[in-house]
Each structure stands twice: as C-alpha cells, then as structure tokens.
Design goal:
Blueprint lengths: L3 E5 L7 H12 L4 E6 L12 H13 L5 H18 L5 H15 L2 H20 L2 E2 L16 H13 L4 E2 L4 E3 L5 E3 L4 H12 L4 E6 L20 E3 H9 L11 H6 L3 E5 L8 E4 L13 E14 L9 H10 L14 E7 H4 L3 H12 L3 E14 L9 H11 L4 E6 L5 E7 L3 H11 L2
Parallel strand pairs: 1-2, 1-7, 2-4, 3-4, 7-9, 8-10
Antiparallel strand pairs: 5-6, 9-10, 11-12, 11-13, 13-15, 14-15
C-alpha cells in the first residue's frame, strides 16, 4: 500500500503482554514504517498512569521533597516490562538518569514527557528499529505555539533517513531546545504530525476500542458500529461527546488528506473505523452516521418586540457574555426572540450577573432562564440527501414523549441539534437511534 504510521495509546503499551501485541501488529505489515508510542497507561482500574506519576515527581521536586519514593513506582514498572520481554537495553541507567534530570530541570513539561521518551527507547530496542527524539524535530515557537510548517519540514527530512523508526508522542521543543508538551492526549497529535511528515498513505490510531459506535453503549444496547465517517462528521460527534478520538488531535492528517483508521490493539483483525475526507460511494446511502450529546447546559431566552429591526441587538447580547469571559454553544433565533445556550461549566456562578448585564445592554421585554438542558446532535452527511430525516427524528421524540426545548441546524445540513430536559437525555438518544435502525 505504501507508508503507514501507527500510533499506540497508553493502554496498548501498559504491560509486557501489550508490548508483545504491538510488536506482532507492527511486524505483520512491512508498510508500518513509523510508530508513535504513548507512555504506559493503566493495567487495571486502580493502577496509576506513568504520566500521572511523573507529574507527581515534578511536584515533589518543585517543593524540595524527595522524588525517589514516587519514581520507584516508575522504575519498577519499566524494569518489569524489560525483564519479561528480555530486551537488550540498559534501562536501569536510563531510569536513574531520568530521575536526576527531573530534579535538575524541574519543569512540568520535561517531567511529563519522560514517559513517552522512555517507552519510545524501550519499544525501539524491542523492535530493533531506530529511535528519533521529537525534541529534535517537533517544534514550538517562543510563545509555546506548535510550529506546524517548521516541524513538517524538519521531520520530513529526518524520516527520509530512517526506514523504520520509533518517534515518541506528546512532546517536542522550544527553539532553545527546552522540552514542550502538547495538552494531555497529545500523543494523538504527534501521531498525526508524523503521518503528515511521512506523507503516509494511512494513519492508524491504535487504542483499546474497535472504533466508533453509532451511540453511547451505556444508553443504547449493542449500538451499531460506525465503519466509516468523514472528518467533518468526526468533528461534530467528538465536540458533542464522542470520546474515542477528537478531530483536533488529527488535524495534520485531515489537512494532508490522509485517511485515519481507528483500530483495537486487543482485536487487530477488526476493521475498526475509517475516517475519510469525504464519504465513499459504499457509504453514500447512509442517512445518519452517529448520535452524541452532553448534559448540563443553560438556556437563556431573550424576547423583545421588533428585535429584528434593532441594529446591533445580537452583538450586545454577545457583549454581555464577553464581559464575563463566557463563550456560548448555540444561538437559535426568531424574529422577536434570541436564545443563548451556555455550558454550566462556563456559566458557573455568574448567571444572575450575565442576565443583569443583558438587561442593561439590550433592554429586553423579558428574559427566561431554563437550567438542566441536554444537547443531542444527530450527525450524518446523508441527511441532506434523504427527505424526511427531520420528520423521523422529531416523530421519534414525540412518540417517546420527549419535549424539545431548542432546535438548531447548521447550514451544511450535516447535523440537527436538539435541546431537551436532561432527565430525558437517555430516552431521547434511544428514541433517535431506534428511529434510524
């Protein structure tokens, strides 16, 4: 096929047993040329992620406390993997150097990055592949913003010199060489960056689930698997709560037009979910792709006669939110009404102050505040081609006796978002799912 880049998450590399699975996956396909590993994740529910332990090491170092009691857990974790795999690597020396460097450098980014660094060194030795340190080729500017084009230029040249290589995820460096990390989950970003730089034919993101499901399995029993979706659909679903992968984390491959395959390390034969730039002919007939949603929103409804003729009314409503550093989710409007949907995490304790500010700026006839709202997005490219989609959706909600409090649909007709009482959330999701299956 060409070049494949494979990224493996923390659960995929949490133990020696998982390392063996990863090696088998990589070696079964010679096109898998570059691999991006995360730090070891949890082996069981009560276990600790190595990255969390490394943050604790930094906090101890910063406070002038002993790091060794915490680092011993990391030491044991890696040494157990090395011993069970029989890898020819002086891991003990690497670990001792790492502990000393965490104390000496004493920055959270450096400490946190060492989980990926050590796992990368270990995986490279286990595979017999080259090791590339992202510190040399994944770059951030002086303000800490990822320098995508600079990175792509350096990394592309670097990869050409290595037929097979391991490139740890999660971190890079400032122009002065100081380690800089992405946000948590940044190994997904690193994998996409490597795929773009390698001009890969396919980017594989290996995790502990077999791709996306059409709905949350905690709500819908045995929901249908999503074998294929587009990047636009992924963005809508991930924004509304689908947690397998966030579109922002794979933007580099989206930009480069490289397909992404979400795969399960524990079930490598499963096809997983393929993410493409546009729907394939095979999937063109599907009406909807997936359903996702969030609870804990507040609806602020503003009414004023002749609102539509009042210049700057909408701007002043949004000014009231901006004055309190609050962003909004949706803005459905009517001729004399305007509603603002705000996440409770944004609103916090400022609800009354915001309502007061809207009164001051807009002088509305009335303002109603409805709390306890849940938003549900029904997403699919096929919605625009299939008449009656909205009728099926709202008919299903009506039959389930779910009252719709808000409706919003984007101009692309890629999704329909409804607001319902959050006590009806599960019932509404199930009703919509059953209407299309």
């Amino acid at each position: 096929m060409g070049i494949k880049v494979a990224k493996f998450g923390g659960s995929s590399l949490a133990s020696a047993e998982q390392f063996k699975k990863v090696k088998n996956i990589l070696l079964m396909d010679p096109d898998r040329r570059y691999v991006v590993p995360s730090a070891p994740g949890k082996r069981f529910k009560e276990d600790e992620k190595v990255t969390d332990l490394l943050y604790k090491c930094y906090q101890a170092a910063e406070a002038g406390e002993r790091v060794t009691p915490i680092f011993e857990k990391i030491y044991t974790r890696y040494m157990d993997i090395v011993k069970e795999l029989g890898v020819d690597i002086d891991m003990e020396t690497l670990l001792k150097q790492t502990e000393s460097e965490i104390i000496r450098v004493c920055t959270p980014d450096f400490a946190a990055s060492r989980g990926e660094y050590l796992n990368g060194m270990l995986l490279a030795a286990y595979l017999g592949w080259d090791f590339i340190d992202p510190r040399e080729c994944i770059k951030f500017d002086r303000q800490g913003v990822f320098a995508s084009e600079w990175t792509n230029e350096i990394l592309s040249e670097k990869l050409k010199k290595h037929e097979y290589a391991v490139i740890p995820g999660f971190y890079g460096s400032f122009p002065n060489g100081e380690v800089r990390t992405f946000s948590r989950g940044g190994s997904d970003i690193s994998g996409a960056i490597v795929a773009r730089a390698a001009n890969a034919d396919l980017y594989e993101n290996w995790t502990d689930v077999s791709g996306f499901l059409m709905a949350d399995p905690r709500i819908v029993e045995n929901p249908r698997e999503i074998r294929e979706l587009t990047y636009k659909e992924l963005r809508e679903l991930s924004y509304m709560g689908a947690t397998v992968l966030h579109e922002d984390s794979i933007f580099p491959v989206h930009k480069a037009g490289i397909p992404t395959n979400i795969k399960n390390t524990n079930d490598p034969a499963h096809p997983g979910t393929m993410i493409l730039s546009k729907p394939s002919e095979e999937n063109a007939g599907s009406t909807i792709t997936g359903i996702a949603g969030h609870k804990n929103f507040t609806l602020i409804s503003i009414e004023k006669a002749m609102m539509n003729a009042e210049l700057g009314f909408g701007r002043r409503v949004l000014q009231a939110l901006e004055d309190f550093d609050v962003s909004f989710e949706h803005l459905p409007t009517g001729i004399d009404t305007m509603s603002v949907i705000i996440a409770d995490s944004e609103l916090k304790t400022r609800k009354n102050e915001i309502v007061k500010r809207i009164h001051e700026l807009c002088h509305p006839d009335s303002i109603d505040v409805t709390e306890g709202i849940a938003l549900i997005a029904t997403v699919g490219h096929g919605m625009v081609r299939n008449p009656g989609t909205a009728a099926r959706l709202f008919g299903a909600l009506s039959e389930a006796k779910v009252n719709v409090l808000m409706i919003d649909q984007g101009s692309s007709e890629l999704n329909i978002i409804v607001g319902v009482d959050q006590n009806d959330f599960d019932k509404a999701v199930s009703a919509i799912y059953n209407a299309f299956n």
